[in-house]
């Protein structure tokens, strides 16, 4: 599954990932042969239902859960919303308290803000300079009315890993349901819900070489949520709507590929990321690493070039796809909420760049991209370019 588009180098795998070949094959077969409604009782429908359940088995195997604990959704955003909005009693939101971190994805933060507007109480915990939440802060924030703690497993911008096991233990001790957004982690590192100790866990298909528009939510047996979507009672009544067999099968194939390639992919991504980091930091003075140097995803490198806008650096790199950590609004540069929460100074954060490698990259691409980045920064600094 290597890139074949000439000089173009894709280094934005935290934004989305190319489909694994096995995913394409599985989806095409369903599109051509299996159009039945999984809720129908005749053979065509039963065959579609069988494919959906086979895909559910693959999700369960990857997450280490029971098959009935895996619910299909439209993606990570819906999964997060299902938990945040599905666990609250809307008849008395003012009696409900949620704990989240300041670096959560908007798909978690924005539903919390919505609930705040309805009267719910939300504690947004600070993070340290690496972007990590303190378990002690979680413990201190718990109140008698706390109904949910939601802390992401891996940050999408910096790759920083949160101390989920420790926080889950605290939540369990206080009998508070615990959710983690694992969209960026699943497929890159081992993610086992039993080992983590979480009650809810969100998955996004397109982050692990699966299709867009499909995801999953782990709901631990014994936990319950009010559905966001009421209807025909599919997914054990937790998420109604006719199952999208094509996308569900694609997600199942992606989970199987991720499970089979996890160790190999982890090693390869770590090696490529570290090579990119070493080349850049050895050949460009003054770079600043954003996020934890060790406790991070194997594929993620986020760093800043102080006093130079990251977007302008990328403008001169048309053959490299990457992301920035700041955006220009009305002639001013606004830091991402993640970097701002980490206390990154504006003059440093404005130059933030995120490069994220994946299974489709090669070491030759990494080294070629590194030297293009090095030369671009040197040019912008007015330094001699070799």
Helix content: 25-40%
Helix vs. strand class: alpha/beta
What number of structural domains do the residues give? Answer: 2
Query: Please, what is the CATH homologous superfamily of the largest domain?
Result: Type I PLP-dependent aspartate aminotransferase-like (Major domain)
CATH-defined architecture of the largest domain: 3-Layer(aba) Sandwich
Strand order of the largest sheet: 2-8-7-6-5-3-4
**Could you say which overall geometry the principal axes of the C-alpha atoms support?**
globular
Q: So how many helices?
A: 12
CATH topology of the largest domain: Aspartate Aminotransferase, domain 2
Q: What proportion strand? A: 15-25%
Please provide the ordered H/E string of secondary-structure elements. EHHEHEHEHEHEHEEHEEHEEEEHHEH
Overview of the molecule:
With 386 residues, the chain is α/β, with parallel strands linked by helices. The chain folds into 2 domains: 9-17 and 262-381, Aspartate Aminotransferase, domain 1, CATH 3.90.1150; 21-258, 3-Layer(aba) Sandwich (Aspartate Aminotransferase, domain 2). Helix content is 39%, strand content 15%. It has 12 helices and 15 strands. The protein has helices at 21-33, 43-63, 76-86, 106-117, 135-141, 164-173, 193-196, 245-283, 310-315, 337-341, 346-349, 363-381; strands at 9-10, 70-73, 97-101, 121-125, 146-150, 178-181, 200-204, 215-219, 288-289, 300-304, 320-321, 323-324, 326-329, 332-335, 352-356. The strands form 4 sheets. Strands 2-8-7-6-5-3-4 form a 7-stranded mixed sheet, sandwiched between helices. Strands 9-10-15-12 form a 4-stranded antiparallel sheet. β3, α4 (106-117) and β4 (121-125) form a beta-alpha-beta unit. α1 (21-33) packs antiparallel against α8, α2 runs parallel beside α8 and α8 (245-283) crosses α12 (363-381). The longest helix is centred in the last third of the chain and has 39 residues, at 245-283. The two termini are 33 Å apart. 48% of the residues are buried. The model has no long low-confidence stretch (mean pLDDT 95).
């Amino acid at each position: 599954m290597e890139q074949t588009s000439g000089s173009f180098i894709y280094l934005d795998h935290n934004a989305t990932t190319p489909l694994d070949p096995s995913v394409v094959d599985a989806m095409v077969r369903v599109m051509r042969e299996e159009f039945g409604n999984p809720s129908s009782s005749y053979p065509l429908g039963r065959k579609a239902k069988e494919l959906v359940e086979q895909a559910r088995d693959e999700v369960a195997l990857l997450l280490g859960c029971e098959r009935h604990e895996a619910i299909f959704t439209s993606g990570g955003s819906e999964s997060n919303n299902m938990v945040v909005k599905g666990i609250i009693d809307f008849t008395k939101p003012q009696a409900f308290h949620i704990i989240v971190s300041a670096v959560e994805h908007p798909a978690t933060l924005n539903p919390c803000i919505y609930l705040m507007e309805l009267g719910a109480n939300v504690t947004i915990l600070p993070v340290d300079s690496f972007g990590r939440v303190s378990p002690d802060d979680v413990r201190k924030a718990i109140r008698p009315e706390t109904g949910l703690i939601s802390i992401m497993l891996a940050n999408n911008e910096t790759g920083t890993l949160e101390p989920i096991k420790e926080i889950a233990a605290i939540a369990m001790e206080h009998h508070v349901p615990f959710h983690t957004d694992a969209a960026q982690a699943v497929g890159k590192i081992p993610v086992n819900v039993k080992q983590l100790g979480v009650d809810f866990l969100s998955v996004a298909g397109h982050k692990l070489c699966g299709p867009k528009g499909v995801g999953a939510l782990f709901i631990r047996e014994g936990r319950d949520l009010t559905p966001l979507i009421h209807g025909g009672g599919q997914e054990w009544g937790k998420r109604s709507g006719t199952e999208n067999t094509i996308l569900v099968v694609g997600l199942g194939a992606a989970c199987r590929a991720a499970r089979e390639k996890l160790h190999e992919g982890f090693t390869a991504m770590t090696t490529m990321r570290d090579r990119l980091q070493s080349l850049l930091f050895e050949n460009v003075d003054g770079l600043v690493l954003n996020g934890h140097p060790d406790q991070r995803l194997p594929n993620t490198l986020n760093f800043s070039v102080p006093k130079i806008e990251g977007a302008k650096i990328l403008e001169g790199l048309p053959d490299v796809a990457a992301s920035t950590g700041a955006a220009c609004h009305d002639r001013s540069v606004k830091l991402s909420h993640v970097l701002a929460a980490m206390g990154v100074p504006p003059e440093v954060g404005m130059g933030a760049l995120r490069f994220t490698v994946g299974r489709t990259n090669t070491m030759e691409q990494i080294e070629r991209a590194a030297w293009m980045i090095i030369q671009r920064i040197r040019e912008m600094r007015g330094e001699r370019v070799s």
